[in-house]
Amino acid sequence: MAIKLFIVSLFSFLSMTLNEKVKIINTSDQSFESNQLYLYLDNDLKIVGIGNLSGYTIKSSAHSHIDIFDSIITVIPDKVGLDSISVFKNKKLISTNIFTVRECDFHPMGYLSFVSDSLITVNQILSNPFLVISNPKCSYKFRFVVTNFRLNIIKKNGEDIPPVSTISKI
Amino acid sequence: MISIIKTLKSGDKILIDEVKYSSLPNFCTRGLSDIQLTIR
Q1: E strands within chain A?
Q2: Looking at the predicted structure, is the pLDDT value of residue A115 above 80?
Q3: What is the pTM (predicted TM-score) of this model?
């Protein structure tokens, strides 16, 4: 435990003393400042301060899977805990950043017209007649595409309106 | 469908079910809970 703490402190110190202009951020997280990676998901990291990654080497202390394409580094962690992502050029350490790998709680929710309440006005629906999905329990940037849903109208006066299937938009 | 929405009055309900979606990057398509809304 003491050794782990020492290593974390050492990397923190190094990250402060290394090239201050180079910063590693997780663009797959809604908060770039969170220093989090998500288990088993594609975490697209961007190195701010380096445009072209040719000649650079990226290493993960937790041996996470790493793919590099253009200026994006995709890291897929396979265990929770700490993972230091380090950038090297000609074997020289340029920058390092410690991320916490955590599981993403996947419980997507659907919202009509972006309304999370159980009450809605006709005008709210008409101004945004879309069904959207988000995953509020995790700040990972999922991309959801609604392909189909069924709309049922239950009139207060008992009038019968048959259900209608539609694609994402009312 | 918009024309149906325009006829809705206070107290009418909307139930959205049988939602199908795809998600990236994991393509997970678990069922989504039904959405029930009441017109204000």
Answers
A1: 23-26, 36-38, 43-48, 56-60, 65-69, 72-76, 81-89, 92-102, 109-112, 119-120, 131-134, 143-154, 164-166
A2: yes
A3: 0.77
